[in-house]
Design goal:
The structure is a single chain. It contains 23 helices and no strands. By secondary structure, it is mainly alpha-helical. It folds into two domains: 215 residues, MFS general substrate transporter like domains (Growth Hormone, Chain: A, Up-down Bundle); 225 residues, MFS general substrate transporter like domains (Growth Hormone, Chain: A, Up-down Bundle), CATH 1.20.1250. The protein is globular and about 65 Å long.
Length: 499
């Protein structure tokens, strides 16, 4: 009898309340803050620039040059990306040293310090505090994007791992939407409120510090990394309930039996491990594509498309909120579909739909002046592209990073994935304006190539991971590698989960 099969079948139901609350506690102070800090900086752009100019005048009795103002503003914005790269590079190590839960709690220090510095910047007359605050916010986001999916993937039952993992995407999009709403003039979008707006990042941090301590550390971390079987059982009883905890414990023990004598890997050790070559290539490709697939270009063009469609300038922020709501709803939909359709269908389908949208968006922008209907078709393409991104690439990428690696390699894998993601984010931020200037509306042909190539790679190279244990997924990659390298199909396979 396959004991894992019996365990999985018992899990095809809704998670219990404790598991859902643990997910909320991890996400609200984690990737929610990433999304919030990405979008909240947009609304007070003009007000912060006025503050920089005024501060410069008070210090040096002269107006700052336009180039100097642009440089300082771009520095404030881009510090978030630099901080994210720093956070991603240390997140995996911290998750091994402090534990997944311990790292998430300690990470709030960066958020609280950032909120304090940005909130005091106007009173202190120091734009330097904004630069440091955005750097700290970025470090917080980088660690959260590395450790939170790790925690969610390790506390979730096998049959609910995809749905639980979608919490990362749902809360990112929820954070983006919340940041957009908070920046409206009816709330905190007025000039006198911008320091308060930027300091509200402390609210989700405070919520996590209040709620997460009531929930346990990752059971997998407790048993495999710390060898604490009693703490693991207690955590499983709280998260999975008395009925299901025995099956979950058996699954974790099987994974531990395959890792006897194996210590947590460093990121550079993954590159020299031939058995993980395809998994590593996959997460590098998917995380790079998540930033290079054109989603940033769509948001860049959204403002232009809304203006061309006749939306008044003062109403465009509300249309922008609509794009955030669109992505948030799609992430929720993906969370509902992922356990029935699977990871491969959603992420590959998302990239295929994005490829189609790139073609139509290029056409609608090219023929913008020929008919009044084309601006509205462009608007449809904007929302369709965002929907396609949220349907798969936006949420499934982090889930696959969790599922393609075993316990000892997973933190290092997230460090590499996070670093690639943030470097790609920085690269597209730097290069994208030049792509737009050079190619104009034809820039989406570049993103068409990226999306179609990634969809092809997913179709041929990535197995479906739905309802499979980490050991089974590893076995599938191992057997695929052996089929390619040996005609007789022989090779070393991890300990079977069947008895």
């Amino acid at each position: 009898m396959n004991l894992t099969e019996g365990y999985d079948n018992s899990k095809k139901k809704l998670p219990n309340k404790s598991l859902l609350l643990a997910m909320f506690a991890a996400c609200v102070g984690g990737t929610f803050q990433y999304g919030y800090n990405v979008s909240v900086i947009n609304a007070p752009t003009m007000y912060v620039q006025n503050f920089i100019n005024l501060t410069w005048m008070q210090r040096y009795q002269t107006n700052i040059s336009q180039d100097g103002l642009t440089l300082l503003w771009s520095t404030i914005v881009s510090m978030f990306t630099l901080g994210g790269l720093i956070g991603a590079s240390i997140g995996g190590t911290l998750s091994v040293k402090l534990g997944r839960k311990g790292t998430l709690l300690a990470n709030n220090t960066f958020s609280l310090m950032a909120a304090l510095l940005m909130g005091l910047s106007s009173t202190a007359g120091s734009f330097e505090l904004l630069i440091i605050g955005r750097l700290l916010s970025g470090i917080n986001a980088g660690i959260a994007l590395c450790v939170q999916p790790l925690y969610l993937g390790e506390i979730a039952p096998t049959a609910l791992r995809g749905a639980m993992g979608m919490g990362t995407s749902v809360f990112i999009t929820g954070g983006i939407l919340t940041g957009q709403v908070m920046g409206l003039k009816e709330i905190l979008g007025k000039e006198e409120y911008w320091p308060i707006l930027l300091s509200t990042t402390c609210i989700p941090a405070a919520l996590q510090l209040l709620i997460l301590p009531w929930f346990p550390e990752s059971p997998r971390y407790l048993l495999i990394d710390k060898g604490d079987e009693e703490a693991c059982k207690k955590a499983l009883r709280q998260l999975h309930g008395l009925v299901d905890c025995d099956g979950a414990l058996e699954d974790i023990e099987k994974e531990r039996s395959n890792l006897v004598g194996v210590h947590a890997k460093k990121p550079w050790e993954l590159f020299s491990d031939r058995s993980l070559r395809w998994q590593l290539l996959t997460i590098i490709l998917l995380n790079a594509a998540q930033q290079l697939n054109g989603i940033n270009a769509i948001y860049f063009y959204a403002d232009y498309v809304f203006r061309q469609s006749g939306i008044p300038m003062d109403k465009i922020p509300y249309a922008t909120v609509g794009t955030g709501a669109c992505e948030c709803i799609t992430a929720l939909t993906c969370g509902l579909l992922i356990e029935s359709l699977g990871r491969k269908v959603l992420i590959m389908g998302g990239y295929v739909l994005m490829s189609i949208c790139c073609v139509f968006f290029t056409l609608t922008l090219t023929f913008q002046g020929y008919s009044p209907v084309f601006p509205y078709l462009s608007m449809v393409c904007v929302f369709a592209f965002i929907l396609s991104f949220g349907l798969g690439p936006g949420g499934v990428t982090n889930i696959l990073t969790t599922e393609l690696f075993m316990q000892t390699a997973r933190p290092a894998a997230f460090t590499i994935a996070g670093s690639v993601n943030w470097l790609s984010f920085f690269f597209i931020s730097l290069v994208f304006p030049f792509i737009v200037i050079g190619l104009q509306q034809y820039c989406f042909l570049v993103f068409l190539a990226v999306c179609s190539l990634v969809a092809t790679y997913i179709f041929f190279c990535i197995p479906e991971t739905k309802n499979k244990t980490f050991v089974e997924i590893q076995n599938e990659f191992q057997s695929s590698k052996n089929k390619l390298s040996r005609s007789d199909g022989a090779g070393t396979i991890l300990l079977s989960t069947s008895i």
